[in-house]
Amino acid sequence: MDSKILCVSLLLAVFCLWYTEASPLEEKYDEKSEADDYQSEDSSAAIHDQTTKIATNAVKTYANKAKATESKAKLYHQYSKDRAYYSREYEKMGEEYMKKSKEYEQLYIAEAARISLHENKQKEWDTKGREANVGIREYETKSQQASSKKNELLEESIIAAVQAAIHETQATGYLLKSEAANGIARNMLQIAESIRDEASNHYQIGKEELNRATAQKVKAQQQAEDSQRHHAAARAYQQDSLRSRMASRANNMQYMQNSLLAERAHSLSTENTLESELYGKEADELAKMSEESAAISKICSGEERSYRNMAKQSEVKAYEYSVSKNMMGADMTDTAAMANGDEAKQGDDEEQQMYRSPNIPAEDSTKNLSYNLKDSTEGEGMS
């Protein structure tokens, strides 16, 4: 939205400048002297400087916004890297907990095997005790030995039952630990999956932004080429306007020379009135020709300003496209756009220097004037 407002304001400024420069010739060149022309040129140069400053400030603000967005993109990229690292760490922790749960399950299986072994032993000793109780009637002589043996077997069975109970409690503890480890591992896996999804989303967003930045880069390059072509055309029109201005200055000097010759001829002799009138008519014609050439030069300068404003608009568009592509950190296009801006500013400075101190061959024109006056006086003396 800000870029659209900036473009509209620049277009309005260019239209105002063009309208003021392209007003009818009767309103501008009938009663204005050369000093007024210089003042108008200075005012237009000041307006151009002001618009250039506004455009540069806008470009700087957009460059700062681009840097801020680029830093945000880098921060999100770092977030995605951190999330991926955390997901890998949580996956490692989940794998470790899975290994521990498997170890606890193996311990539980081993304890269950021990418990079953002790239960089998207890059953064997019980069966042996029953057999001993049954054999008491048949073997009365061995009753004492059988009873003692029974007592021993009972003691061993009690010990085996106690050991089985101990192993069973240990197995239940290992089972609870394995279940807790499985729950922690499942939670870790869920967290890792969510982090992996977030990392993939960040990666997809970064990829889309990269594609968008490449497209903006191509558009910025095209706009830069268009601005260079417009700048070259503005240069050509500037050279044409300078040539027309030099021609108008030469016509003004010729007019001054003819007017001085007419005044000299009128002061020397009243008999040469006809010649002085002819010189006056020629001077009027030359003045008209000089005014027409000055008007043509002003028109050329107006067209040159319009083309230069078009070139500046193209450069502003190129800056905007280069600013939009900086979202992923492509700095080379920024440097190229800034180089184009510096060239445009240097061209404007050269143009202002040409307007302020134009290279007019003043010495040659005065020499020609003095030489013509000398020839005229010598011709009159000889006559």
Secondary-structure map:
Blueprint: H1 2-21, H2 25-29, H3 34-138, H4 143-268, H5 273-324, H6 331-356, H7 362-382
Helix pairs in contact: 1-3, 1-5, 3-4, 3-5, 3-6, 4-5, 4-6, 4-7, 5-6
Please give a quick description of this structure.
It contains seven helices and no strands. With 383 residues, it is an all-alpha fold. Residues 1-22 form the signal peptide.
Task: Tell me about this structure.
The chain is mainly alpha-helical. The chain has 2 domains: 2-85 and 216-382, no CATH class; 90-201. Helices cover 93% and strands 0% of the residues. It is built from 7 helices and no strands. The chain has helices at 2-21, 25-29, 34-138, 143-268, 273-324, 331-356, 362-382. The longest helix is centred in the middle third of the chain and has 126 residues, at 143-268. The two termini are 81 Å apart. Keywords: Coiled coil, Signal. Residues 335-383 are annotated as: Disordered. Residues 203-230 form a coiled coil.
- Mean pLDDT, all residues: 66
**Number of DSSP helical runs:** 7
Number of domains: 2
Record field, number of beta strands: 0
Intertermini distance: 81 Å
Signal peptide: 1-22
Coiled coil: 203-230
Region (Disordered): 335-383
Keywords: Coiled coil, Signal
